[in-house]
Amino acid sequence: MVHLVGDPIVLMRRALAGRAGVLVLDNCEHLIDAVAELVVPLLAGCPEPRILATSRGPLEVDGERSVPVEPLPVLDEFGADGAAVELLFDRMRATGTSQEPNSAERAGRAAGGWGHGHW
Question: Residue 16: CB partners within 8 Å, gap ≥ 6?
Fold first, then answer.
């Protein structure tokens, strides 16, 4: 763990000053107010970088542009695993988790739910 001394916004401004690029703030829905309070002074102090914040709702800051993104389908048009399930398995494999759903869980998902097991 790194311990930083000083105002985090000032430190971030220094790190971003004069740089073009994208600062990604993911999964902001749990901290919308705090992220908005961070974004406004960051952009005021260093307008070069762009900020991409993912959230289920807007930050409601000046200049914000919202782009709605639909959820990935659980099942494809043939009833097989859809993009959401494939992405889940891909992420599980990337972390070394090899557990896959059993037939009862797959049947539950095909019936419109995720089944009763954890995978």
Answer: 23, 42, 46, 48, 49
